[in-house]
Amino acid sequence: MPLSEQQLLNMEKKRKRILESATFLFATEGFEGTTIKKVSEVASVSFGSVFTYFKDKEELFYTAVVEPLKEFSEVVFDFDTDADNPRQELENMIKTHIELFAGVNNYLTLVVHVVGQHQRYPDIFKELDDFHNKFRERVGLLVKNGQQKGMFVEQDPLVVATLYTSLLIGIRLNTTDSRYSEMWKQYISSAVNLFGPI
């Protein structure tokens, strides 16, 4: 007998709760310190329930790092690289990105963990690297557009884009303020200056 819509919704919520709990634990206790038992306790589900959705801890970790990339893509890549006013588009992009990154501290801790040990997690690293390359490429196109319109100083667009993506991660990891702090808004104008507005 097929599952009802409500049962499917409940399963989806439970899976999400497991992933959120795993992300928190992987970020705070590391891969080694996180066990399926701890994940089940934090998620308030049975030990066996975790295995309904994930084969093992490795698959849970992979999913916790890779799955959010699709959702982030919809926000991170949502800017017009060919905008008529690249300066305004840049400011809007930075505001959106800073608001997003302000809320994903635990997730970014996992990203840094994988990047720092990329030989250990080659499949996950490849997914992150592909995302980062696409991100840098799109930001670089916006920078190039601004340079062609005489709004930004001439500099290597990809270098600027790389510095920008590093800045976003670094700000979140070095800032203890909550995502709703006024401090986050203050970073926007300084981040704009990275692109060399004229």
Automatic annotation (TrEMBL):
Keywords: DNA-binding, Transcription, Transcription regulation. Residues 35-54 bind DNA. It holds the Pfam family TetR_N. InterPro entries: DNA-bd_HTH_TetR-type_CS, Homeodomain-like_sf, HTH_TetR, Tet_transcr_reg_TetR-rel_C_sf. It comes from the Bacteria. Residues 12-72 form the HTH tetR-type domain. This is TetR/AcrR family transcriptional regulator. It comes from Alkalibacillus silvisoli.
